[in-house]
Design goal:
Radius of gyration: 23 Å
Number of strands: 11
Number of helices: 14
CATH architecture of the largest domain: 3-Layer(aba) Sandwich
Largest sheet: 7 strands, mixed
Strand content: 15-25%
CATH superfamily of the largest domain: Periplasmic binding protein-like II
Length: 333
């Protein structure tokens, strides 16, 4: 590396990395990504089934090879340096490409094989996770699936950034790099505690927004639906509690804590049981997708899972597509 180069920009980093690439081992990149994900050597070592001293030595070796410090070490953990943040994306994409190469090679030999990181959302029954997995693993026994439960917006970002190979997702395809298979349209209703029925029945937009709301974190599709709904009518919901789990939200509504959006099937079931009341002023809908990077659409393992999902969801599943101009507008609400 030139002595006057201090990794002043991303292009400088990329240029230097390309010179050194033949000397970088994949296991070093896996260690780099694991420590970056966890922010902690001990947790990263447990994830990779390495000893902490061995993992620390791998990180130090990678830093020495690249001539740049990747982490700031402190008692609280491991924080990425500026150079580390710049290089992390390249490391993730390199590992993804290596995995895709291995899967493609196995496919050429007659087997769909490899390891895929799949994101899940909502509850397993609703996304038909059991039926999907049993079909996939029976048909492709050499395919390993690693499941990660995420909030919908976080799952989308993880696919876009290469931290997940694919994921279930609610919403619109708001990025040109992400494509998906539409599985089903899903409706949501505004649900309130059953004891609030008189107030809810008489409520307009101002009154329903003024009630205490149970909202999900801002990255979630659920949150985007609520904010878009009220923005359209010039009001803002009054947040009381934040929760990130559908069953927890339903329980809080039923317990009299506040108002929230519930999936229509759950909302109607709870209404029939006398646990909630529904506001008649709005019914929202969104799409359940199976999303993946556009560049991975032809990956044999991704294509295999798409086929299994189309069988699992039957006529409800629609052909894969990438972002459209309209979907981008709706995603930016």
């Amino acid at each position: 590396m030139p002595s006057n180069c201090q990794f002043c920009d991303a292009q400088c980093i990329l240029n230097y990395l390309s010179v050194q690439a033949l000397n970088v081992e994949l296991y070093q990149l896996r260690s780099f990504v694991a420590v970056a994900d966890t922010g902690n050597l001990t947790r990263a070592a447990e994830r990779l089934h390495h000893s902490q001293p061995a993992l620390s030595a791998q990180i130090k070796g990678l830093e020495d090879m690249l001539g740049v410090q990747l982490f700031k070490r402190a008692s609280s953990g491991m924080a990425l340096t500026r150079a580390g943040r710049e290089l992390l994306g390249y490391a993730v994409r390199t590992l993804a490409a290596a995995e895709a190469l291995q899967r493609a090679a196995r496919t050429l030999s007659g087997n769909v094989a490899g390891r895929l990181r799949i994101g899940t959302v909502s509850d397993p029954e609703f996304i038909r996770l059991g039926a999907f997995l049993s079909r996939a693993l029976e048909r492709f026994p050499n395919l390993e699936l690693e499941l990660h439960h995420e909030m919908s917006g976080a799952a989308f970002d993880a696919v876009r950034e290469g931290r997940l190979d694919a994921s279930f997702y609610f919403g619109e395809l708001g990025h040109a790099d992400v494509a998906g298979l539409a599985l089903a349209e899903t409706a949501y209703r505004v649900a309130a505690p059953a004891a609030w029925k008189a107030r809810v029945d008489a409520a307009g937009w101002q009154e329903i927004a003024a009630l205490p709301w149970i909202l999900t974190p801002s990255i979630s599709t659920h949150n985007h639906l609520v904010k878009a709904l009220f923005t359209e009518h010039g009001v803002s919901p009054s947040k009381l509690v934040e929760a990130d789990n559908e069953s927890v939200i339903a329980n809080l509504v039923e317990s009299g804590v506040g108002v929230s959006l519930l999936r229509e099937a759950l909302a109607l079931e709870a209404q029939a049981a006398g646990q909630v009341c529904l506001w008649g002023g709005a019914r929202l809908s969104t799409t359940l997708w199976f999303v993946y990077l556009q560049t991975h659409a032809a990956d044999p393992a991704i294509a295999a899972l798409r086929g299994v999902l189309q069988e699992t969801w039957g006529s409800a599943a629609r052909a894969p597509r990438a972002r459209s101009p309209r979907s981008r507008e709706r995603a930016e609400l």
